[in-house]
Structures are given as structure tokens and as C-alpha cells.
Fold this protein.
Amino acid sequence: MNDIDLARVLDMQRNIPGYMAEASAAVWCVLLRAQHETWAWKGRSTSGDYLEIGVFHGKSASVLANFSNVYGNALAIVDPQILPKTKQTLDAISPHVKYFELRSEELQASDFYVKNRRQIAFAHIDGLHRFSVVISDLQACEGLLADFGIIAVDDFHSDGLYPQISAAVYKYLFSGLSDLCIFLVGFNKAYLCRNCAKKYFMQFSRTQLLPELESLGQKFTLAKTDRNDAFDAFAITSFFENRHYGGEHTS
């Protein structure tokens, strides 16, 4: 596996304007590196591509661009209007960034969607924060998601401003038509995967997520206070008392 300097990735995104918490950037780094290992199971030399819906100044996209630069896969940016400065920022990080200036609701009718079905490794949904648009973005990303892909949903449980995002995610997941589940929640983001990958990402979260974050100087608490077939996810939060909270549910 190609090596990547995660401290450099974090430092770079730190200097780009935007709203991504450094804690989330660190979680992304650890998950992206862990996820990349799954591609070797199918004998592939490179991972699937990345997708970001809603880019603004490119703060979160810079993390994906750094991985794209090292692994050689592409990063697709979908936004109705992409600032020239944002393109300049991302192009300076990776030569593999592609830009699609369109509304995310149009994504399923695009050539990009047809060519990338079940091929996307990591998708970040941070577009228009409307209930119907979040549903549409989840539909598109599920169709694009590879077996061991991850979808990150921004502003999840930011209920003071965007209660509709959490409502849309839960409605979509519990519709009975989705093959997705949440395996991790934290710092206003939800992390989803296909059910076939849930065991892998749950085990990784339980055993490796905290140690790898601590190696980056990030100390958190992993919590799990219930276990249920309908909803069975970890939560990651600011450190308090111990590394794990929830007793038998975190073991």
C-alpha cells in the first residue's frame, strides 16, 4: 500500500477556510486508509474513486484530494458553482480532480453516474441541505457506492440548524429499499456503508479507530450504549473519563 503522510493532510486542510472540524478530518484520514486495504481483497491495484457533493472552498475535499494524489484514483466534485479559487486549491494537491458543475439532483441522469455504478470508494454529501435533496443524494450515492465504500453525511444531528438532514437519513435507511446502514456517528457526521461491509467497519471502529487517531494526536471516546438489529452504530465524541463508554456494548 502506498504510504501517506496523514499529519501533512491534516495540516493542509487546517489552512483552508471552511467548516470541517479537525476531528472529522482525522476520522476521515483513518477510515480512508483502512478502507483502501479492502481493495486488495479483490486484487485491485487502486481503490475506487471519490465523490464530494458540495465543495465550497475545498476544505473537506482537500483530504480526499491528498488521498487521490497518493493512490492515483479520481476525485469528482459536484456543485452547481465551483469557485476558481477552489479549483486552484484542489488542483495544486492532485492532478486527478474532475469538476461537474450541476445540481446533485441531476447526478443520476449523468454519464458520470452510468460509468461509475458500484465503483465509488468514498462519497461526501454536503450539498443543498433540503430534505428532498438529501434523499436524492443518498439514492445517487448508494447507486455509485462500491461494496466496501463509505458515505459521509455532513451536518447529521445539527438539529439547531438542519433537523431535516437527520430526518431524511433515517427515512431513507428505514424505507426498506436501502442496502445501507450507519456504522459510526460523530462530530456532526454520519458514516454509512453497505450491509456486506458493516462487520468490517464495525470491527475496525471497535479495535483500531481510537489507537490510530491517537497516533495523530487526537484523543476521543468511542461510545456504544445499545445493540439492536435495526440500529447498531458506534458514536465517537470528545474524550471524557475513558476511551470507551458503554460497557459490554463496546466490546
The two ends are 29 Å apart (CA to CA). DSSP finds nine helices and ten strands in the chain.
